[in-house]
Amino acid sequence: MSKRAVLEVIALDVEDAVAAQAGGADRLELVTDMAADGLTPSVATFAGIRAAVDVDLRVMLRPADGFAAGDVSRLVAVAGELRAAGAEEFVLGFLDADGAVDLAAVEQVVSVLEGCRWTFHRAMDRAADRNALRRALDGLPGLDTFLTAGSAGGVDDGLPTLLAEAGLRGEPGYGPRILVGGGLRLEHVPRLAAAGIDGFHIGGAARPGGWAGPVAARAVEEWRQVLDAGVPVA
After folding, report:
1. Domain total for the chain?
2. Which of 61, 105, 174, 197 could disulfide-link 94, Cβ–Cβ 3.0 to 4.6 Å?
């Protein structure tokens, strides 16, 4: 690869964050409750991690399992509390009952982020129409990344979609970086990198003991080395 790829690691606490940074992560996604696929962490958790590491932190704004926005006023309040505590980057994404982007909810939350950078997360992999979702979000302040596996089933199923979308870079809705995550494995990297994808997101892959155990710096380092080398995995 011609430039350093972004490696983002899911962190649940300070121990995870310190290990991920030591292994070479560029950015952390801060969440709690992975049994629900990642919900908003507490302000105290954010503050503790922010004090412990100096990499970029993207904080999840997700109130419950699933992709409904729920009580948007509460989400707005939580986002405001995190901003007041120093959070500068976020992760969010809401769908309506028909699988379309809940643009009203997204816009309300984004309005209190004051231009902060944010990722639209894997809700897009459950969308009824990915292209329509991208176009509906096009131009929203701060949106610079789509976290996606290309499919609700994960990268194995979604690889053709990811490669196709990489080829649409520059089209309306296709300006933000593609950050690949969801069943991502090292052997996927060469094809993704060859297509120009330079964002990679790992969770369980950074935890040799599974989600019951912490992030391991050595596991993150293996990913860092592969991404920096830009060569096929043996």
Report:
1. 1
2. 105
Q: Is residue 38 part of a domain?
A: yes
> 32 is in which domain, residue-wise?
6-229
Neighbours of 115 (CB within 10 A): 9
Cβ atoms of 119 and 91 closer than 8 Å? yes
Amino acid at 25: A
Per-residue pLDDT of the chain (234 residues; tens, 9 = 90+): 347 899 999 999 999 999 999 999 999 999 999 999 999 999 999 999 999 999 999 999 999 999 999 999 999 999 999 999 999 999 999 999 999 999 999 999 999 999 999 999 999 999 999 999 999 999 999 999 999 999 999 999 999 999 999 999 999 999 999 999 999 999 999 999 999 999 999 999 999 999 999 999 999 999 999 999 874 444
DSSP 167-231: TTTTSTT--SEEEE-SS--GGGHHHHHHTT--EEEESGGG-TT-TTS---HHHHHHHHHHHHHT-
CATH code for position 120: 3.20.20.380
